[in-house]
């Protein structure tokens, strides 16, 4: 009879035990866990501290008793394995409560020991008000500290996903929080512009973000940074990474791999044929480039646990590798990454490139549309998707999963472009952001739509003697924030001014998202300009990159960050039609865009009457039917409609001013 012995009882271990039982009703299955709990939801710990999960017991998915009852698996908690005797097929374990030692025999052993948070070697790191979060016990300590000591300020050391989830949790518990990150930006595994989206969200919620700096000392109410700053900190949360738990395996003479994890083959078998391993402690192949990596995440741990169990029972299931899909929600913002980042792909010598699009997550006309951002990273020659990143308030997770599927199955951008994604107005758009990203990548590969990433701009500018930067957005957008030194020429004005544009000087174009920028590129290339390049993702990407990493070779005005609160959303009082009397005005200019669009900038003294209000008759424009009325909108389409509506009401002198840029240049 097989004796399956599992060391570690959380994600990989508990999954392996349950799978082993499903595969073999007769095997003897035993699970040894050093801690007091098995199968708890460590990913849920920050949300309990935040108050999002109201009951601690919801985090405990199984108890030793329920596991035995449900699966017939004998579970020993508080039982730490201290030695493995490979030859005898026996492990020795020590009970942490009574100190007793016990031997357990196995025919097949599965190691699922996970990892532990790294502890920095800085003065004060062991003080009582300094925590890390890994177990239910850690969570209780933090929760008790918050309840009993009512700290007002906190510093979170490390801006990775656990660190940021804890930032949110502590803000929700009413603390003023700072996050300190040694790398250039938080979420260092992401590209700067993706991280910039998260950075802006953190700042919106009042979080102090300190990057490219490290904590050098922890005092009772503050921490010191290596840049000389001192931050108030009634409590400190350390979250600087995870190291695999390997001592036992090393002592047993099991091979360690090049990425610093326990070496396993594709059957998740260690260098000893009767010992399998899964989860945070192992190194596995990256599914995209085949390199050895450690990807300490719950998804891979669960899948590896299943496969290790299957193979321990004689199966031949090959693990295909992990792709590193990880996603974080920070307050309301969601960002994720999958496959290789561009940095990683280039660093491993791949011929990689990337494009970015920002598009509404569902149709713009259906209420509640939010921008979702997609970066697709692909091989320049073959177009095979290598990875990608997404960001947004809504819909970022869905696109990330599509990118993960594309990268895992080695789809090309052209294949991605042709996929039909779920669409109805409240759900998506007929041309999803994924399709758009794939089109843009195809256009870049073919040379039809040359573009450059914001992360490449500094190097590009350094490589050129002279570059013209052209902002083709409307005047209000340009006034609010721009690349300093950029010329402003709204897209509608490009054709009329085409002769004035030098043809031999390289031109960089940007608009709001990259879409109109592409149109401008085509116009200028068509007019004979030799080198015209669109800034991928436009001003949105520029803003985000500037927020996370800044630029060396130029400056830009950053858009103000709207303050948000976890208590209630702070809404600015707005009056859209301040002090405008329709009777007083000789010439009436009506902006028929929505209130939101109007507030982002409008023609001087324009009256805002959204087209819907105009059509439903909710407007009084007085009795002077012959007065001059000019209507305008964003593109000229809604205003054409408005013109018809007003004329049908009897106004005789109604002109369509067109889009906002045309309006500004005409009047
Ligand atoms: C706060 C937090 C939030 C997270 N959020 C996410 C998330 O959102 N998404 C995501 O994908 N991942 C997340 N993770 C990571 C995820 O939880 C881990 O990748 C996953 O738990 C790894 O599973 P594992 O079984 O390999 O290791 P673990 O879950 O760490 O379990 C290993 C177990 O082995 C036991 N053990 C070790 N040595 C011995 C020994 N000698 N004898 C007996 N027992 C031993 C340990 O006590 C431990 O309980 C999060 C982790 C934490 C801590």
From TrEMBL:
Its cofactor is FAD. The keyword Oxidoreductase applies. InterPro entries: FAD-bd_OxRdtase, FAD/NAD-bd_sf, FAD/NAD-binding_dom, FAD/NAD-linked_Rdtase_dimer_sf, Pyr_nucl-diS_OxRdtase_dimer, Rhodanese-like_dom, Rhodanese-like_dom_sf. One of its GO terms (molecular function) is oxidoreductase activity. Keywords: FAD, Flavoprotein, Oxidoreductase, Redox-active center. Signal peptide: none annotated. Residues 463-547, 588-665 form the Rhodanese domain. Belongs to the class-III pyridine nucleotide-disulfide oxidoreductase family. This is FAD-dependent oxidoreductase. The lineage of its organism: Bacteria, Pseudomonadati, Bacteroidota, Bacteroidia, Marinilabiliales.
């Amino acid at each position: 009879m097989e004796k399956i012995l599992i060391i570690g009882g959380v994600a990989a271990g508990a999954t392996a035990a349950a799978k082993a039982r499903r595969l073999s009703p007769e095997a003897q299955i035993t699970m040894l866990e050093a801690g007091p709990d098995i199968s708890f939801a460590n990913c849920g710990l920050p949300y309990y501290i935040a108050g999002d999960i109201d009951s601690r017991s919801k985090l405990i998915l199984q108890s030793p008793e329920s596991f035995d009852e449900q699966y017939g698996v004998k579970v020993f908690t508080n039982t730490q394995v201290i030695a493995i005797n490979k030859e005898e097929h026996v492990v020795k374990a020590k009970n942490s409560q009574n100190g007793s030692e016990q031997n357990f025999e196995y025919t097949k052993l599965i190691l699922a020991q996970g990892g532990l948070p790294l502890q920095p070697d800085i003065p004060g790191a062991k003080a009582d008000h300094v925590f890390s979060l890994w177990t239910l016990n850690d969570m209780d300590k933090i929760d008790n500290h918050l309840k009993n000591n009512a700290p007002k300020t906190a510093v979170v050391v490390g801006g990775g996903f656990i660190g940021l989830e804890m930032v949110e949790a502590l803000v929700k518990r009413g603390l003023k929080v700072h996050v300190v990150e040694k790398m250039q930006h938080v979420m260092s595994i992401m590209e700067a512009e993706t991280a910039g989206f998260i950075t802006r969200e953190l700042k919106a919620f009042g979080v102090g973000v300190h990057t490219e700096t490290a904590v050098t000392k922890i005092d009772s109410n503050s921490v010191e940074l290596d840049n000389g700053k001192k931050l108030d900190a009634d409590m400190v949360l350390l979250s600087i990474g995870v190291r695999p738990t390997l001592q036992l395996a090393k002592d047993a003479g099991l091979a360690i791999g090049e990425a610093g994890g326990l070496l396993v083959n594709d059957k998740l078998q260690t260098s000893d044929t009767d010992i399998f391993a899964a989860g945070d402690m192992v190194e596995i192949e990256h599914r995209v480039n085949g390199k050895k990596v450690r990807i300490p995440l719950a998804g891979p741990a669960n899948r590896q646990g299943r496969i290790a169990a299957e193979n321990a029972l004689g199966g031949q299931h090959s693990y295909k590798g992990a792709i590193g899909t990880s996603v974080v929600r920070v307050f309301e913002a969601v960002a994720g990454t999958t496959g290789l980042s561009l940095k990683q792909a280039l660093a491993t010598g791949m011929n990689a490139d990337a494009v970015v699009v920002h598009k509404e997550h569902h149709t713009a006309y259906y209420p509640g549309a939010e921008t979702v951002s997609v970066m697709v990273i692909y091989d320049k020659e073959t177009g095979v998707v290598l990875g990608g990143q997404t960001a947004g308030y809504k819909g970022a997770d869905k696109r990330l999963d599509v990118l993960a599927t594309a990268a895992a199955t080695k789809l090309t951008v052209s294949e991605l472009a042709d996929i039909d994604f779920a669409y109805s107005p409240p759900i998506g758009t007929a041309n999803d952001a994924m399709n758009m990203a794939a089109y843009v990548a195809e256009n870049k590969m073919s040379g039809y739509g040359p573009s450059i990433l914001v992360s490449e701009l500094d190097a590009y500018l350094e490589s050129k003697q002279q570059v013209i930067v052209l902002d083709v957005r409307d005047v209000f957008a340009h006034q609010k924030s721009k690349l300093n030194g950029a010329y402003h020429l709204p897209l509608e004005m490009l054709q009329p001014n085409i002769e004035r544009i030098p043809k031999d000087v390289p031109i960089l174009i940007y608009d709001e998202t990259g879409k109109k920028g592409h149109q401008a590129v085509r116009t200028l290339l068509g007019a004979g300009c030799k080198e015209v390049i669109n800034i991928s993702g436009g001003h949105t990407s520029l803003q985000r990159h500037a927020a996370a990493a800044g630029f060396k070779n130029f400056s830009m005005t950053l858009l103000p960050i709207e303050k948000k609160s976890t208590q209630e959303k702070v809404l600015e009082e707005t009056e859209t039609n301040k002090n405008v009397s329709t009777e007083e005005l000789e010439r009436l200019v009506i902006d028929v865009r929505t209130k939101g669009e109007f507030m982002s900038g409008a023609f001087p003294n324009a009256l805002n009457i959204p087209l819907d209000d105009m059509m439903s008759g909710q407007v009084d424009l007085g009795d002077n039917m012959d007065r001059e009325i000019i209507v305008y909108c964003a593109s000229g389409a809604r205003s054409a409609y408005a013109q018809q509506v007003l004329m049908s009401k009897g106004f005789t002198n109604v002109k369509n001013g067109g889009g906002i840029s045309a309006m500004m240049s005409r009047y």
